[in-house]
Amino acid sequence: MADSESSNPQQSQKSLADQSKEKILFTAMKLFARNGYHKTPAASIAKAANISHGLLFYHFGSKEKLLQAIVNYIVAKIEGVVEVDHDLPPTEGLGALCRNFKQSLQDDRNFWELYHSLIFQPSLKGEIVEPLNGVFEEYRKELVKVFEKLGYLTPSDTMLQFEAMRHGIMVAFLIQGADYPIDKLFRNLSERFG
User: Fold this and answer.
1) Can you give the pTM of this predicted structure?
2) Is pLDDT at 185 greater than 50 in this prediction?
3) 9 & 90 share domain
4) Same domain, yes or no: 132 and 80
5) How many domains does one find in the chain?
6) In terms of domains, do 174 and 106 share one?
7) Which of 61, 87, 104 is the last residue of a domain?
8) Residue 107, Cβ neighbours under 10 Å: how many?
9) Could you give the CA distance from residue 165 to residue 2 in angstroms, rounded to a whole number?
10) Which residues span the domain enclosing 28?
11) Which residues fall within 8 angstroms of residue 46, CB to CB, at 6 or more apart?
């Protein structure tokens, strides 16, 4: 008997449609990161993704809605990485957070490179940085709670120091590549603050 999923044409079409949307999304991210959002016409995205211009508009409606889909993807991805687990003791939670960041950087380096390229485009500040501020504001509040539980006298200042070091490790890894001692540095970060 044939697999019901593979014999269902609607399921196959949906899967192909999702694949097509994802291909457009990542192609647009790359082009926006490399050339800038405003200097990347929708026709260039379609050509680079090897799809018709009409298919791009079928899936996203406009270049602006495509950018919004990219922002939604980035926000969801980052929310998954910056989650603080308060069910763990604070030291273990901080260690888990460091491991999550490290693993995400190693598993999806391309995403983080594109993310950094996009957030530093002045013309996209409102479209990308503003939605991310909400995610990071919540994350920073959760980190402050962790440092309060750990007994730091100035948990807000400690959070800022932790974040500066975490972000520094992340950027150095993206610049220097696989030879950068990311495992050791994230372990040291966790031990230093935990």
Assistant:
1) 0.79
2) yes
3) no
4) yes
5) 2
6) yes
7) 61
8) 10
9) 54
10) 1-61
11) 24, 52, 53, 55, 56
**Beta carbons within 8 Å of 52's beta carbon, 6+ residues apart:** 46
DSSP code per residue over the chain: ---HHHH-HHHHHHHHHHHHHHHHHHHHHHHHHHH-STT--HHHHHHHHTS-HHHHHHHHSSHHHHHHHHHHHHHHHHHHHS---TTS-HHHHHHHHHHHHHHHHHH-HHHHHHHHHHHT-GGGIIIIIHHHHHHHHHHHHHHHHHHHHTT-SSHHHHHHHHHHHHHHHHHHHHHH-TTS-HHHHHHHHHHHH-
From CA 115, how far away is CA 55, in angstroms rounded? 25
Which structure tokens are listed for 39? 């200097």
Highest mean predicted confidence (pLDDT) among 12-21, 113-122, 123-132: 113-122
